[in-house]
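Reviewers of the previous submission asked for a worked example of the structure-prediction workflow described in the proposal, so we include one complete record here. The input consisted solely of the amino acid sequence. No template or homolog information was supplied to the procedure at any stage.
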Amino acid sequence: MPEHCPVCGQAYEPETGFYWGAMYISFAFSTGIMLVVGVLLYYLAGDPDTWVYVSAVALVTVVLAPLSLRYSRTFMLYLFGGISYDPDWANHAPVRRRG
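From that input alone, the workflow returned the following structure tokens.
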């Protein structure tokens, strides 16, 4: 991941250790994924054996881990970094170059 946005120059890590809180957000995302997969298995597969639950939950959690990590960092940046998305920013502001 680059240190700064190539378009606006925004630092992706406003301070050292900023993303420690993203671990907790990622944990919440993973917990939600596990609950959803477990409930879907229960209702769609008719309460399968325990090994099916464990295997399915582990597989889905591992496959979605990169998305969970990326979105937890984005969520953390939006909540506590003072960042907001402006789609017209590039049209009305000069581009700052980082060297």
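The CA atoms of residues 14 and 49 lie 46 Å apart. We consider this example representative of the routine output the project will generate in years two and three.
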